[in-house]
């Protein structure tokens, strides 16, 4: 079995599109939530979202790329290229048949679907764009990344709603651990802040209807009333330890465990007892071959919905001990759906590197029914040697990865 290490990462998020900005806002608890700018949301009843700001499109793209790729694909490619640059991998020196891509997305090109269905309804089937399918299908973030970097190993897209990014990282970890690949580009990407995306989740009463940006995404707060839609991408470069050491790579952290389970309980609601999520955490910790008390930090799924936060806190209490500090970075980034696990993996890695717990921001009073040890409002400097990142998706999908601090 191969040990699996992290040698690079890239991020596109509502709180920054580079390491320095993302880390600073993570430490300071600065959220990226504000009034929706991408469309007129006045009819939806929802006013707030966590949108990507100042995306540096011209760093890796030309104008025609925006016509040939959906926004979530652009985010994925940007994050992947940033991660690859950080890793120091020279693709000309690699066996590209041993490099793979696993980038998940929950919904994919929803904006294209909305626009083209509207166009067809107004102007007829003959006016549907020939790029409709390549823009809309969910696997094209992974496919476009592989095309851009020339990766010829396994290339897949996990679609497990809000667990997609974490499942992708976990499956990539297993591919290297069991010897099927030397290098994997893994993570998640999403961009669904549009009329149908907001309207659909609003119809489920899943979104916060708050008009106060500072009180819209408030995981574990007693007054939480729904999640805030976010967008972006988070991508890791994973390598076998042998491969990374052979090329003299700077190692940033290690993936040591992965757990994946299903609630088999309800289409959209989590098991209220948190049993499925607890089993996923336990499986990740067992694969890491550590005691549950050794987990110092949990980057919780923490959506800011009543059902999720209560069930997840029960899961954490079942699977771990009070030694684990818990926070939800969705209080800063909103909920990136299929991209959440990728961005939150980067946040978890930075917690290990920088030895701090990111805060759950803008909390006034933690719900007394929440059993976990929540870090609120201010980052906490503390030793972090092992951390887990949870992602829980509609359909009962649970995915958890366990990361270890790298000490040379």
UniProtKB/TrEMBL annotation:
PANTHER family: 3-OXOACYL-[ACYL-CARRIER-PROTEIN] SYNTHASE, MITOCHONDRIAL, POLYKETIDE SYNTHASE-RELATED
One term of GO molecular function: 3-oxoacyl-[acyl-carrier-protein] synthase activity
Record EC number: 2.3.1.179
Pathway(s) of this molecule: Lipid metabolism; fatty acid biosynthesis
Keyword terms of this UniProt record: Acyltransferase, Fatty acid biosynthesis, Fatty acid metabolism, Lipid biosynthesis, Lipid metabolism, Transferase
Coiled-coil segments on the chain, per record: none
Top-level taxon: Bacteria
Species this protein is from: Candidatus Enterococcus moelleringii
Catalytic reaction(s) noted: a fatty acyl-[ACP] + malonyl-[ACP] + H(+) = a 3-oxoacyl-[ACP] + holo-[ACP] + CO2; (9Z)-hexadecenoyl-[ACP] + malonyl-[ACP] + H(+) = 3-oxo-(11Z)-octadecenoyl-[ACP] + holo-[ACP] + CO2
Descriptive protein name: 3-oxoacyl-[acyl-carrier-protein] synthase 2
Any one Pfam family match given in the protein's UniProt record, by short name: Ketoacyl-synt_C
Domain Ketosynthase family 3 (KS3): 1-405
Enzyme kind, highest EC tier: transferase
Similarity comment: Belongs to the thiolase-like superfamily. Beta-ketoacyl-ACP synthases family.
Purpose of the protein: Involved in the type II fatty acid elongation cycle. Catalyzes the elongation of a wide range of acyl-ACP by the addition of two carbons from malonyl-ACP to an acyl acceptor. Can efficiently catalyze the conversion of palmitoleoyl-ACP (cis-hexadec-9-enoyl-ACP) to cis-vaccenoyl-ACP (cis-octadec-11-enoyl-ACP), an essential step in the thermal regulation of fatty acid composition.
